[in-house]
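Please decode residue identities from the backbone states below.
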């Protein structure tokens, strides 16, 4: 009979956000969650005493809100999370995958879904799917091209686009921050006549042989199809380098994950501050090969309402690491 896995001892002390070790080392081997690179770059990192797990998160009032599941060996990440929750008293893990939600001993609720693309199928899909092909051609006809660039070279354009977002009064809940682990992040830009019209930032998911696109920024005046062209270029690049999959991350309150009438009414009520339906429709137009449900899980001493409120506060007041 196999011996039970020993619970790692976790300490409620943090490393500097974005620290190279052990966070980057563990993510390079075990990273699967599309939120982990975001949290690891911008939030305090809580690590096990023996250095085999890290958990990015932030304390909101009396509640600890963690970004994704613990980063470490899959076989014992549930044990690590339970130990952390026990020490923390009140803990919620935001955006965890279905496997983790099923092994969690507290409550779990679906918060949305993330689209997944099989990159081996992208080239054919981009050529045959009219919803993709026509948009890419529209942008190309307006002299828009896509290239990989350094994040520093797009900093000014990114700041300008974010200012446009602020004026739209739309809430950005793409994650706790927009910057993945800086030394692993890759940036692509859509250029038109020397002007940056859109920017895409991605971080690797090593254990899935894939990439998570964390942020897409587009000027309001960019030609139609600019984002489609930029995303297509990134997908082609990743596939040529041997990557297997890509995701654009969480679609909060996705109708695919939450098809009921109550969720539909919630989306309708909140659409003025966050385009739930618009974001999901755009990603669906790119013909993902599958959708994966993502969850919010919490410890038994924390209600769903309290956890949801704490996550909302964490998202609204999250650190901004844009380097």
């Amino acid at each position: 009979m196999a011996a039970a896995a020993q619970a790692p001892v976790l300490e409620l002390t943090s490393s500097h956000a974005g620290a190279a070790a052990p966070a980057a080392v563990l993510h390079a081997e075990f990273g699967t969650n599309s939120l982990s690179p975001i949290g690891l770059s911008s939030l305090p990192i809580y690590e096990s005493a023996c250095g085999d797990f890290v958990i990015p998160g932030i304390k909101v009032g009396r509640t600890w809100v963690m970004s994704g599941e613990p980063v470490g060996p899959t076989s014992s990440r549930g044990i690590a999370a339970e130990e952390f929750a026990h020490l923390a008293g009140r803990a919620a893990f935001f955006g965890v995958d279905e496997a983790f939600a099923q092994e969690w001993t507290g409550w779990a609720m679906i918060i949305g879904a993330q689209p997944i693309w099989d990159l081996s199928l992208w080239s054919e899909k981009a050529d045959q799917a009219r919803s993709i092909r026509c948009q890419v051609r529209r942008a190309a006809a307006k002299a828009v091209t896509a290239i990989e660039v350094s994040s520093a070279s797009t900093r000014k354009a990114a700041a300008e686009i974010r200012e446009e977002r602020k004026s739209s009064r739309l809430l950005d809940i793409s994650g706790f921050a927009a910057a993945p682990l800086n030394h692993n992040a890759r940036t692509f830009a859509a250029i038109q006549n020397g002007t940056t019209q859109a920017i895409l930032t991605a971080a690797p998911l090593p254990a899935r042989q894939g990439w998570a696109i964390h942020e897409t920024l587009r000027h309001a005046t960019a030609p139609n199809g600019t984002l489609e062209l930029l995303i297509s270029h990134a997908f082609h690049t990743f596939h040529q380098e041997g990557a297997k999959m890509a995701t654009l991350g969480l679609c909060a309150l996705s109708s695919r994950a939450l098809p009921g009438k109550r969720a539909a009414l919630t989306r309708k009520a909140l659409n003025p501050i966050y385009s739930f339906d618009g974001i999901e429709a755009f990603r669906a137009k790119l013909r993902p090969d599958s959708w994966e449900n993502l969850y919010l899980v919490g410890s038994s001493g924390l209600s769903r309402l309290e956890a949801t409120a704490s996550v909302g506060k964490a998202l609204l007041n999250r650190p901004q690491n844009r380097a």
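Observation: The CA atoms of residues 189 and 199 lie 5 Å apart.
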